[in-house]
Known about the structure:
The structure holds two protein chains of two kinds.
Chain A: H1 2-29, H2 68-81, H3 83-88, H4 90-121, H5 133-166, H6 168-172, H7 176-199, H8 204-215, H9 223-238, H10 246-258, H11 269-278, H12 295-300
Helix pairs in contact in A: 1-9, 2-10, 4-5, 4-8, 5-7, 7-9
Chain B: H1 44-49, H2 68-85, H3 95-104, H4 116-120, H5 131-144, H6 149-154, H7 163-173, H8 181-185, H9 192-206, H10 215-225, H11 233-251, E1 266-269, H12 272-276, H13 279-292, E2 296-297, H14 311-314, H15 316-333, E3 337-340, H16 344-352, E4 366-368, H17 369-379, E5 393-395, H18 410-418, E6 422-423, H19 449-457, H20 459-468, E7 479-482, H21 486-498, H22 501-505, E8 507-510, H23 512-518
Parallel strand pairs in B: 1-2, 1-3, 3-4, 5-6, 5-7, 7-8
Amino acid sequence: MGTFLIVLTYIAYVFIVAVYAIKVRKWIKLPTHIRWDLYPVIHEEQYRYGGSYYEKPEWWMQPRPKNTGRSFWYALKDNFYMGEYFKRNPLYWLFLLPWHLGFIFIILFHITCFFAAAAMVGGVTISATSSQPGGQIVYGLLMVFAVIAFIGGTFGCIGMPVIRLVDRGLRSYAMPMNYFNYVFFLIVYASGLYSWLALDPTLAEYRMYWVGLITLTPPELNPGTIFHILLFDIFLIYLPFTRSTHYITRFLAYFKIRWDDEPNFRGSELEKKLNMLLEQKLSWDAPHMSKGKNWGEAAVSSGLPEPKKDNV
Amino acid sequence: MIRKTRIKDFTKPGGQVAELDAADWMKLPAPYERADKPLRKLTDDQRKRMDATLDGVVAIGIAPPATPEEEKAFIDKFLAGVEKLFDAADNWTFLQPLFHTLEYCVKCQICSDACPAYVASGRQDIYRPTMRPELLRRIISTYVKKEHPLMRKFKASDIELNGQALIRLAELAYRCTLCRRCAQVCLLGCDNALVSREIRKIFSQQMGIAPKEVHEKGSAQQIKAGSSTGMTPPALADILEFTEEEIEEKTGKKIKIPVDKKGAEILLLHNAGEFLAWPENLEAFAILFDAAGIDWTLSSELVGYDAVNYGVWYDDVQFTRIALRHAQAAKNLGVKKISLGECGHAHKAMIVVADRVLTGNLNIPRESAIPLMEEIVMSGRIKLEPGRNNFPVTLHDPCNMVRLMGIVEPQRRILRKIAPQFREMTPHGVENYCCGGGSGFAIIQSNNFPDWRSSVSGRMKLKQTLEAFADKPSADVKKYVCAPCSNCKGQYRELFNYYDVWEKSGIFYGGLVELIVNAMADLRQPFIQWEWH
């Protein structure tokens, strides 16, 4: 079992990273699109009220300062707060936020376990009473991450199906997959919660397990902990088949669509890209579409029906 | 009573998917609580000619396929269009945002209450912003990706398509004003309004189907005759002559409106609606620019004198054609820049969206006229007496100019300076509500669509406009909604007529530049005439 679990864990991590990378790459590789910005654009100077550089006369002659750090922070903090939901549907938010925190923190917990194990291999003691301050900090982080993940995730998984059944809008868009997810994820979180509360209050077994992963020596673990690790590996393999990539793609959508206000100047790299895109041929079938012509040629044409020739 | 609409109801052949009843609609403030009228019923003849089984309303008027063969061809053509929507050559323009929304929307419904049409309708399920993308998603899963039936069951992505369902989908794409309030609240960056536009695109670009006011009498007429109004260059010359006479009559000023002035600094693009329906806007621009010594011109070249670009609502190729012609008109005159008059969608189309289709020497600098107006007002170049505007004024934020472009404060700074009784609507700025006439609705006059537009899509705007003037409800106190957008003004005109707002509440509507000119100290009489039209 020990060797199987180690192999499965490696496969799970490689799989999730690879599939997420493929998905993100697919997203990024989609062609440059028409501007479709939506305000407020957070990197803008006047983002507080949603202003843009278009508020200035001859904006193309003016500096356009961008605060990318602010944009990044804005996008990131919503992963941990989800303010729009709190504002618009607090009851839903009450379950949705812990459900999401469960995801984020269970992954953070396992990643931190890896670093803790690496430190242990290097001779650092990870515990509340460690003589090394770093060991105490990592221990504290592990405990916080695990507690949020197990309790938040369990609470979210119980609450989400309830709110989905109660709320008319959510119910009408529900799919069997949602309920499967709630049950499966509940088992993942609850098994972790049980393992922590009943078997391993200091989470030492996870650190031992990760040391085993690094040193390729399967440790002896409590079956309850093994069960949770097994489920967590399956969870990692399953995640890419859900819409979970939205944790990453929402950043892309913010930066590359909603806040993409980059103007096209003559001679710019963007213009070169656009010229190539405009050379592509159209295959739309409507009569006014200039089928077979490229975008540039179609734009020059009128798309109007040819005048009828008189029969002479 | 609101009937719950399930997604599978959408494909059921036969009766109407949703019944609209005025009793369900969002309540309006006094004295409009009982002002609603039932939507006009279509005649039997209309019902035979056009499928109205979505909600009893018709914006496009698509004839049901007459035979099973026709129905199959109709469906096949649509599905071919769906595939092209995901083709990087055919739809490079919007593929990335479309893909993102279809792939990553979790249907959490947070966007529903942001949609004024959904809320105003009494929360009819069919108007949820997620309805259209969900239908498209299911069509893709079942007919394009052809996912395994078990997978479709697991993901509830099965759909049984028929001609009637497709016609309903086409109509449903014209129940969204593309105001993108739904997108603004989405934490995942999804844009369900865009999906409405992309569905419209399949129907237009693949099947040649669009409301006739938008395509045949809209963008196609603009390309052919020069303007979507049908106004030709000789007609333009007549109108400008009339405008000059009007200016002289009202102000005593003899102003020659510059046309085709080579090398002018600014080519001013007006929505042709101003020439015909609101000439006072055109007059006010001429008076203001003349007084401020601006070097400007209009163009008399085909398309070059009408800023509208309806393509931005439904068809990328039509959009590109018109943007190109606008830029060409500017290039031919050798102007330094293009300035957009008070037309929201033309702002967005020409300044922002066209930015990625105009390259080389057609990429002429483009800006809104509003910052220029602000500069004129704040510079002291013209003498203004704000007391001349001493009546309640509120500001409508055109979605295209504000939420979709970020031009928020210049118009407010002007109003704070020239309108002593200026007050905001709630909400306002980038969180504003659409006038209800966005994305072509203001120009669609066929069948019973105008009733729906006034009763449902414009309802929220009417409510917040009335609330902005709640302290002065009497019709004896003349009040002014400043709507710096031609389509929004068109919608206000229809909305106020439908509910007799001028008679009951004394609320008038008009542009921003009219208010500036009304405050000009050297005018011998008020510029704003308060004549309802």
